């Protein structure tokens, strides 16, 4: 286990660095923000930004909110006259 001055606790496994807790001070983050952004994108792990040792912000990869498939169809029905009306064989294009 390696603990570095940036308060980042890392575990070395199979030549890869895995972050258990990734904390960095605001001043360190400000100086190396782009580097940290790339690290967050690559690892998928969130980073905690601290101010005087207290956690203040969390930076994490963006994930799209999962939407209910019915939301895509909402508002698409224009007219709904008789839902129980039988469908005739002549109405099916595949049978023509």
Q: End-to-end distance, in Å? A: 72 Å
Q: Can you summarize the main beta sheet?
A: 5 strands, mixed
| Spatial strand sequence of the major β-sheet | 1-2-3-4-5
H-E order: EEEHHEEH
Structural class: alpha+beta
> What radius of gyration results from the CA coordinates?
27 Å
Estimate the strand proportion.
Answer: 25-35%
What best-fitting shape do the alpha-carbon axes yield? rod-shaped
Uncertain runs are: 1-20
Count of DSSP-assigned helices? 3
What is the residue-averaged pLDDT? 76
Strand segment tally: 5
Q: Helical proportion?
A: 10-25%
Explain what the structure shows.
The N and C termini lie far apart (72 Å). The model is unreliable at 1-20 (pLDDT under 50). With 96 residues, the protein is α+β, with helices and mostly antiparallel strands. Helices cover 23% and strands 30% of the residues. The chain has a five-stranded mixed β-sheet. It is built from three helices and five strands.
Quick gist of this model?
The protein has three helices and five strands, in the order βββααββα. The chain has 96 residues and is of the alpha+beta class.
Properties at a glance:
single chain; 96 residues; alpha+beta; five-stranded mixed sheet; 5 strands; 30% strand
């Amino acid at each position: 286990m390696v603990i570095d001055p940036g308060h980042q606790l890392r575990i070395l496994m199979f030549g890869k660095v895995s972050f258990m807790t990734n904390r960095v001070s605001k001043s360190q983050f400000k100086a190396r923000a782009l580097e940290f952004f790339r690290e967050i994108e690559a690892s998928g792990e969130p980073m905690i930004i601290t101010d005087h040792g207290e956690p203040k912000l969390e930076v994490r990869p963006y994930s799209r909110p999962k939407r209910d498939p019915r939301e895509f169809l909402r508002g698409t029905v224009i007219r709904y006259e008789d839902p129980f009306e039988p469908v005739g064989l002549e109405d099916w294009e595949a049978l023509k």
